[in-house]
Amino acid sequence: MRKLETKTIVVASHNAGKIREIQELIGPLGFTAKSAAELNFVEPDETGTSFEENATIKAVASANAAGMPALSDDSGLVVDALDGDPGVYTANWAETPSGTRDFDMAMAKVEKALQDAGATTPEQRTARFVSVLCLAWPDGHTELFRGEVEGSVVWPPRGGQGFGYDPVFQPEGYGVTFGEMSGEEKHGWSVGKPQALSHRARAFKLFVETCLEA
Protein backbone atom coordinates (compact mmCIF):
# COMPACT_ATOMS: atom_id res chain seq x y z
CA MET A 1 0.00 0.00 0.00
CA ARG A 2 1.34 3.42 -0.95
CA LYS A 3 0.88 6.47 1.26
CA LEU A 4 -0.33 9.73 -0.25
CA GLU A 5 2.32 12.34 0.50
CA THR A 6 0.65 15.38 -1.05
CA LYS A 7 -2.48 17.27 -0.08
CA THR A 8 -3.04 18.45 -3.65
CA ILE A 9 -5.04 16.05 -5.81
CA VAL A 10 -7.51 15.95 -8.68
CA VAL A 11 -11.07 14.71 -8.15
CA ALA A 12 -11.47 12.63 -11.29
CA SER A 13 -15.12 13.33 -12.00
CA HIS A 14 -17.46 15.44 -14.13
CA ASN A 15 -20.49 14.64 -11.90
CA ALA A 16 -21.33 17.75 -9.85
CA GLY A 17 -23.04 15.84 -7.02
CA LYS A 18 -20.22 13.33 -6.73
CA ILE A 19 -17.59 16.09 -6.80
CA ARG A 20 -19.40 17.91 -4.00
CA GLU A 21 -19.58 14.80 -1.81
CA ILE A 22 -15.91 13.90 -2.32
CA GLN A 23 -14.87 17.46 -1.56
CA GLU A 24 -17.02 17.38 1.60
CA LEU A 25 -15.16 14.26 2.70
CA ILE A 26 -11.61 15.35 1.87
CA GLY A 27 -11.94 19.03 2.78
CA PRO A 28 -11.69 18.58 6.56
CA LEU A 29 -8.41 16.73 6.03
CA GLY A 30 -6.77 19.78 4.49
CA PHE A 31 -6.81 18.77 0.83
CA THR A 32 -6.67 21.18 -2.06
CA ALA A 33 -8.56 19.62 -4.94
CA LYS A 34 -9.86 20.60 -8.34
CA SER A 35 -12.13 18.39 -10.38
CA ALA A 36 -11.52 17.00 -13.83
CA ALA A 37 -14.50 19.09 -14.93
CA GLU A 38 -12.91 22.33 -13.66
CA LEU A 39 -9.66 21.46 -15.42
CA ASN A 40 -11.51 20.72 -18.67
CA PHE A 41 -10.11 17.21 -18.90
CA VAL A 42 -11.72 14.96 -21.48
CA GLU A 43 -14.13 12.53 -19.83
CA PRO A 44 -12.84 9.01 -20.59
CA ASP A 45 -15.11 6.28 -21.90
CA GLU A 46 -16.11 3.98 -19.03
CA THR A 47 -15.68 0.69 -20.82
CA GLY A 48 -15.23 -1.50 -17.73
CA THR A 49 -17.69 -4.13 -16.56
CA SER A 50 -17.05 -3.57 -12.85
CA PHE A 51 -16.96 -0.57 -10.52
CA GLU A 52 -13.25 -1.23 -9.96
CA GLU A 53 -12.44 -1.13 -13.67
CA ASN A 54 -14.35 2.09 -14.31
CA ALA A 55 -12.95 3.83 -11.23
CA THR A 56 -9.44 2.95 -12.40
CA ILE A 57 -10.08 4.25 -15.93
CA LYS A 58 -11.17 7.63 -14.59
CA ALA A 59 -8.44 8.03 -11.97
CA VAL A 60 -5.62 7.02 -14.31
CA ALA A 61 -6.85 9.40 -17.03
CA SER A 62 -6.90 12.37 -14.64
CA ALA A 63 -3.59 11.48 -12.99
CA ASN A 64 -1.93 11.32 -16.41
CA ALA A 65 -3.52 14.58 -17.56
CA ALA A 66 -2.68 16.49 -14.37
CA GLY A 67 0.69 14.95 -13.52
CA MET A 68 -0.45 14.49 -9.93
CA PRO A 69 -2.47 11.98 -7.89
CA ALA A 70 -6.16 11.70 -8.77
CA LEU A 71 -9.06 10.27 -6.80
CA SER A 72 -12.07 8.85 -8.65
CA ASP A 73 -15.32 7.22 -7.65
CA ASP A 74 -17.40 4.73 -9.57
CA SER A 75 -20.65 3.94 -7.86
CA GLY A 76 -24.09 2.59 -8.47
CA LEU A 77 -27.31 1.08 -7.24
CA VAL A 78 -27.45 -2.72 -7.23
CA VAL A 79 -31.00 -4.09 -6.98
CA ASP A 80 -31.36 -7.79 -6.13
CA ALA A 81 -34.73 -8.33 -7.85
CA LEU A 82 -33.25 -6.87 -11.05
CA ASP A 83 -30.31 -9.27 -11.08
CA GLY A 84 -27.97 -6.49 -9.96
CA ASP A 85 -29.17 -3.81 -12.37
CA PRO A 86 -28.64 -0.97 -12.88
CA GLY A 87 -25.25 -1.66 -11.26
CA VAL A 88 -22.28 -0.35 -13.25
CA TYR A 89 -24.79 1.11 -15.72
CA THR A 90 -26.50 3.24 -13.04
CA ALA A 91 -25.68 6.51 -14.81
CA ASN A 92 -26.63 5.06 -18.20
CA TRP A 93 -30.18 4.44 -16.99
CA ALA A 94 -30.47 8.22 -16.56
CA GLU A 95 -29.24 9.14 -20.04
CA THR A 96 -31.65 10.99 -22.32
CA PRO A 97 -31.59 11.20 -26.13
CA SER A 98 -30.14 14.72 -25.83
CA GLY A 99 -27.14 13.41 -23.88
CA THR A 100 -28.17 14.84 -20.51
CA ARG A 101 -29.02 12.78 -17.43
CA ASP A 102 -32.49 12.68 -15.91
CA PHE A 103 -32.47 10.84 -12.58
CA ASP A 104 -36.21 11.30 -12.04
CA MET A 105 -36.63 9.27 -15.21
CA ALA A 106 -34.02 6.76 -14.03
CA MET A 107 -35.74 6.25 -10.67
CA ALA A 108 -39.06 5.72 -12.47
CA LYS A 109 -37.37 3.20 -14.74
CA VAL A 110 -36.11 1.24 -11.70
CA GLU A 111 -39.57 1.32 -10.16
CA LYS A 112 -41.21 0.06 -13.35
CA ALA A 113 -38.69 -2.78 -13.58
CA LEU A 114 -39.42 -3.74 -9.97
CA GLN A 115 -43.17 -3.67 -10.59
CA ASP A 116 -42.70 -5.79 -13.72
CA ALA A 117 -40.68 -8.27 -11.61
CA GLY A 118 -43.48 -8.43 -9.02
CA ALA A 119 -41.27 -6.90 -6.33
CA THR A 120 -43.77 -4.97 -4.25
CA THR A 121 -42.83 -5.62 -0.62
CA PRO A 122 -39.75 -4.22 1.18
CA GLU A 123 -38.36 -7.75 1.47
CA GLN A 124 -38.49 -8.09 -2.33
CA ARG A 125 -36.89 -4.69 -2.95
CA THR A 126 -33.53 -5.14 -1.26
CA ALA A 127 -30.65 -3.21 -2.78
CA ARG A 128 -27.28 -1.74 -2.00
CA PHE A 129 -25.30 1.27 -3.01
CA VAL A 130 -21.71 0.46 -3.99
CA SER A 131 -18.84 2.92 -4.24
CA VAL A 132 -15.31 2.12 -5.39
CA LEU A 133 -12.67 4.82 -4.99
CA CYS A 134 -9.48 4.64 -6.99
CA LEU A 135 -6.41 6.68 -6.11
CA ALA A 136 -4.00 6.82 -9.04
CA TRP A 137 -0.52 8.29 -9.36
CA PRO A 138 1.03 9.55 -12.63
CA ASP A 139 3.45 6.60 -12.61
CA GLY A 140 0.51 4.20 -12.98
CA HIS A 141 0.27 2.94 -9.38
CA THR A 142 -3.33 2.58 -8.14
CA GLU A 143 -5.10 1.77 -4.89
CA LEU A 144 -8.75 0.66 -4.72
CA PHE A 145 -11.26 1.00 -1.88
CA ARG A 146 -14.78 -0.47 -1.94
CA GLY A 147 -17.69 0.55 0.28
CA GLU A 148 -21.26 -0.79 0.35
CA VAL A 149 -24.43 0.06 2.26
CA GLU A 150 -27.45 -2.25 2.38
CA GLY A 151 -31.00 -1.01 2.10
CA SER A 152 -34.12 -1.12 -0.06
CA VAL A 153 -35.77 0.77 -2.89
CA VAL A 154 -38.83 2.80 -1.86
CA TRP A 155 -41.50 4.54 -3.92
CA PRO A 156 -42.39 7.35 -4.38
CA PRO A 157 -39.08 9.23 -4.10
CA ARG A 158 -38.62 11.13 -0.85
CA GLY A 159 -36.42 14.14 -0.13
CA GLY A 160 -34.49 16.67 -2.13
CA GLN A 161 -31.04 16.21 -0.60
CA GLY A 162 -28.14 14.33 -2.20
CA PHE A 163 -28.27 13.44 -5.88
CA GLY A 164 -28.92 10.59 -8.27
CA TYR A 165 -31.02 7.78 -6.84
CA ASP A 166 -30.78 9.01 -3.22
CA PRO A 167 -34.55 9.76 -2.91
CA VAL A 168 -35.50 6.10 -3.51
CA PHE A 169 -32.80 4.44 -1.37
CA GLN A 170 -33.58 3.79 2.29
CA PRO A 171 -30.56 2.44 4.17
CA GLU A 172 -31.06 -0.54 6.43
CA GLY A 173 -32.04 0.46 9.97
CA TYR A 174 -33.27 3.93 9.00
CA GLY A 175 -36.77 5.29 8.37
CA VAL A 176 -35.65 7.94 5.89
CA THR A 177 -34.01 7.87 2.47
CA PHE A 178 -30.61 9.29 1.58
CA GLY A 179 -32.58 12.05 -0.14
CA GLU A 180 -34.01 13.07 3.24
CA MET A 181 -30.60 13.23 4.96
CA SER A 182 -28.16 16.09 5.19
CA GLY A 183 -24.62 15.45 4.00
CA GLU A 184 -23.47 14.96 7.58
CA GLU A 185 -26.24 12.45 8.25
CA LYS A 186 -25.72 10.58 4.98
CA HIS A 187 -21.98 10.24 5.40
CA GLY A 188 -22.25 9.61 9.13
CA TRP A 189 -19.16 11.62 9.97
CA SER A 190 -18.05 14.44 12.18
CA VAL A 191 -15.34 16.74 10.81
CA GLY A 192 -12.28 14.71 9.89
CA LYS A 193 -13.64 11.55 11.48
CA PRO A 194 -15.71 9.55 9.00
CA GLN A 195 -17.98 7.06 10.76
CA ALA A 196 -19.12 5.77 7.41
CA LEU A 197 -22.85 5.35 6.85
CA SER A 198 -22.94 5.92 3.09
CA HIS A 199 -21.19 3.68 0.59
CA ARG A 200 -18.91 6.56 -0.43
CA ALA A 201 -18.01 7.37 3.19
CA ARG A 202 -17.21 3.71 3.84
CA ALA A 203 -14.88 3.60 0.84
CA PHE A 204 -13.39 6.92 1.91
CA LYS A 205 -12.73 5.60 5.42
CA LEU A 206 -10.66 2.78 3.92
CA PHE A 207 -8.79 5.33 1.78
CA VAL A 208 -7.97 7.39 4.89
CA GLU A 209 -6.83 4.35 6.88
CA THR A 210 -4.69 3.00 4.04
CA CYS A 211 -3.19 6.05 2.37
CA LEU A 212 -3.25 8.84 4.95
CA GLU A 213 -2.82 7.41 8.43
CA ALA A 214 0.66 6.51 9.68
TrEMBL record:
It is an enzyme of class 3 (hydrolase). Binds 1 Mg(2+) ion per subunit. InterPro entries: dITP/XTP_pyrophosphatase, ITPase-like_fam, RdgB/HAM1. Its cofactor is Mg(2+). Keywords: Hydrolase, Magnesium, Metal-binding, Nucleotide metabolism, Nucleotide-binding. Substrate binds at S13, H14, N15, A16, G17, K18, S75, F163, G164, Y165, D166, K186, H199, R200. Mg(2+) binds at D45, D74. Gene3D superfamilies: 3.90.950.10. SUPFAM superfamilies: ITPase-like. It holds the Pfam family Ham1p_like. GO terms for biological process: nucleotide metabolic process; purine nucleoside triphosphate catabolic process. One of its GO terms (molecular function) is metal ion binding. The active site is at D74. Its EC number is 3.6.1.66. It catalyses: dITP + H2O = dIMP + diphosphate + H(+); ITP + H2O = IMP + diphosphate + H(+); XTP + H2O = XMP + diphosphate + H(+). GO terms for cellular component: cytosol. Transmembrane segments: none annotated. Homodimer. Pyrophosphatase that catalyzes the hydrolysis of nucleoside triphosphates to their monophosphate derivatives, with a high preference for the non-canonical purine nucleotides XTP (xanthosine triphosphate), dITP (deoxyinosine triphosphate) and ITP. Seems to function as a house-cleaning enzyme that removes non-canonical purine nucleotides from the nucleotide pool, thus preventing their incorporation into DNA/RNA and avoiding chromosomal lesions. Belongs to the HAM1 NTPase family. This is dITP/XTP pyrophosphatase. It comes from Rhizobium leguminosarum.
